[in-house]
């Protein structure tokens, strides 16, 4: 199976008899990897890659970083997500590195080499950020083990053992390392799991989750990226999540929202959200106890091809503005996201009209906010409703300028205050009903009648 993967995954793969092990020698049997004692040494499966994506990593700045560590005698490897992406023929957006050098040792060699270091906040966790040639930043992290965790943060201890660092990571395909010569080091069957499009925790799911409860959401995010079936989870993984779902109450809303947005933008988001709700996630992330699943399913099916924003999909689970505010208080939406959710809940049930686009055009003039934001919100309502043709028409519509301004009303003797605002609003409604055709003179002729209406 491993050899089949090697031939399938890479445009060009280089084998070395001293490195490539047969599957039978690949460490421990799969079922034995549920718990790996700290003193148990695992021989990693290794293989070499030489793909276009791998070669493209080596910018002059990466080469300089590699040379610096080589000159000072410390080992450096690519770590985590970049390795996973390269094995899937995806060019990594970011490349993070792991090293046997401690943060103090890294600072010494960077200072000796005249390399500027930035963002020193990560040093206590082992990460030093170096800026090479004043052009490219690299995060380099010391190999480490967790000595104490509380479900959110970890106290770490530095090590020079690559296996121990791999053992503390969340998912098998995120626990691999890649040498700068193209050698992949895989301790926990990450390559096999990638080949089978399978998402597995390193070791016991319960233990990994309790170290950081955000890993529950990371599991579902990566499921959307890796899996080929929408709802094919291992029973022990779901059990571990269900038993520990309450741990999310201690995770900040900002961190939860970052992961949830990625889930909503990824593959199988409908099935993943439904599965997460079935596991009991709702009260711990700010959703109502009984989210509107019927509405969510309908909106997902009719809106997905229009690429709605994550907030748009999430709003389908909510029945009221109060539920929007409660969700916002938990997830800490941006002001834009909060206002978008409120706008959708208020206007998603617009009644049919003889001129179907008119109610949506009217919203541009009756909603407070920046014009660009309001236009985007109207587009999201149309996506929510699956109105692709109206969406195209709205996007092609040139917003006309309302011909009345405050000075005109003041000149007509209308005094400032709430009544002034009501009169301006009513004139704007009349103008919208005229298909934006009435001139300022024609609208001002309506002023006596409008003034009487508003009192």
Q: Could you explain the architecture of this structure?
A:
The chain is of the alpha+beta class and 455 residues long. It has 4 domains: 2-202, Beta Polymerase, domain 2, CATH 3.30.460.10; 204-285, cca-adding enzyme, domain 2 (Orthogonal Bundle); 288-399, cca-adding enzyme, domain 2, CATH 1.10.3090.10; 406-454, no CATH class. The protein is 47% helix and 11% strand. The protein has 23 helices and 11 strands. It has helices at residues 2-9, 52-56, 60-71, 81-87, 103-112, 162-167, 190-195, 205-211, 215-226, 235-244, 253-265, 269-278, 293-303, 310-315, 321-331, 335-347, 358-366, 371-384, 388-396, 406-411, 418-433, 440-445, 447-454; strands at residues 13-14, 45-49, 76-79, 96-99, 116-118, 127-132, 136-142, 144-149, 154-158, 177-179, 183-186. The strands form 2 sheets. It has a 9-stranded mixed beta sheet. Strands 8-9 form a two-stranded antiparallel sheet. A hairpin with a 3-residue loop joins β6 and β7 (136-142). α9 (215-226) runs parallel beside α11 (253-265), α16 crosses α18 (371-384) and α17 runs antiparallel to α18 (371-384). The longest helix is centred in the last third of the chain and has 16 residues, at 418-433. Residues 1-35 have low confidence and may be disordered.
